[in-house]
Amino acid sequence: MPIYYPDADLNNSSSFSSLEKRAVASLASLYGFRMLGLFMVLPILALYMDDYPGFSPLLLGVCLGIYGLTQAALQIPLGLLSDKIGRRPVIVGGLLVFIFGSLVAASAETSAGLIVGRAIQGAGAIASTLMALVSDLTREENRTKAMANIGASIGVSFVLAMIFGPVIATALGLSGVFWVTALLGCLGIIIFLRWVPKAVTVQRNRETHTDLQQIRGLLKDPSLLRLNFGVFALHLILMAAFVVIPALLSEELGIVGADLWWVYLLLLGGGFVAMLPAMIIGEKLQRQKLSFTTAVVCVTLAMLLLALFRGPLLTPIMLLLFFAAFNLLEASLPSWLSKVCPAGRKGTAMGIYSTCQFFGAFVGGVLGGWSVQQLGVDSLFLLLAAIGFVWWLLALGLEAPKAMQTVVLNSGDIAYEDFAKLILKVPGVEDILVVRGEQLAYAKVNKKTVDMSGLKPYLNL
């Protein structure tokens, strides 16, 4: 969840301007098309890749997760490059790389060719650059809503991918899925060039940009370490599970490829409905830690029972429990990070977080494939349950997050030392980052106790 940038009234934020509406709608569509293409292979790769020469469960896992390795390696560098040469060339270049990777995979005749194509797909790592462009094209007070729209497009893409992947694969085969993915990349370029407005000015904002000098300090923060391990473990478990979930549904439950789409729709839709009450109650009653750790227990329990007691009734129930817990954790982790991240460091912290997320997907794919090949399906689920248990132990050390938010301020001509002292005197301000030579400052405030009237003259609107 992106951080909230308030105006003077915490209960009323500005509506989108026409330019902002156009920017958010086009970028959310672009992001959604790209992620739809990446996700569509998840529910069907395990069912179709064994037709390719050189297939093995290990290579299946590598093919599933390899995009995460190239994403993790290139996301921060490409984001920094976009700061220097501009967002548009990096985004268009990344989409062209994504399209090329899709074409390589669509034309592949061996398992190795599929892996190369997936790796190239991930090398078009433009997620952080797209988020930075959202910041360039929206005002501070509207940025939370803009980021929420992007996040919603990712969630919708995941659900649609679980539906369209099996449908397209049934009609056109695995190569057809990659041809459609390449088409989606082309649509993304058209949307970007035709509808995304050009940023007139770019203001460096440490809440959305990466600063390499902040990385070492953030890697030592105990709360951020636990959250980064959490997203690493969550996507490790997800990708490793998808090494075997399609086979469980088709071979053990007898659900053929043409029917997989409605099974995934029921599992994901049911999981979403099941997680909403837990998340809402946790937020309203300030019991986020309880709902969070309970969700980790649910993931762990689902993996354990899938290892020990699979069957026509229990397997769908455990998968439903897993997807419900996954949805809650996927939404809770970035929200929690934004609340505990030190002021003015969220851009860098989110870069580290996303790198851990993608690297977890890579490790999960490789670990899942290796485990199935060497140890079997039951042992894989036991291993994933053990990882979930370690995550639960670490999560117990998290402190419940306060109702915090970061406010971006403009110091004007006031000396940075004097400005920091001035802002820290305002009730409810708990931390501030003021950098010599920069006009923007970043104050961490408690939403329940902050006196916004003391900050109103300095808000960066």
UniProtKB/TrEMBL annotation:
Membrane topology, as annotated: Multi-pass membrane protein
MF terms (GO), sorted A to Z: transmembrane transporter activity
Transmembrane stretches, start-end: 31-49, 55-78, 90-108, 114-134, 146-171, 177-196, 224-249, 261-280, 292-311, 317-337, 349-368, 380-398
CDD domains noted in UniProt: MFS_YajR_like
SUPFAM superfamilies: MFS general substrate transporter
Keyword Cell membrane: yes
Keywords: Cell membrane, Membrane, Transmembrane, Transmembrane helix, Transport
One GO cellular component, as annotated: plasma membrane
Pfam families hit by this protein: MFS_1
Domain Major facilitator superfamily (MFS) profile: 18-403
Subcellular location: Cell membrane
Name under which the protein is recorded: Major facilitator family transporter
Organism: gamma proteobacterium HTCC2207
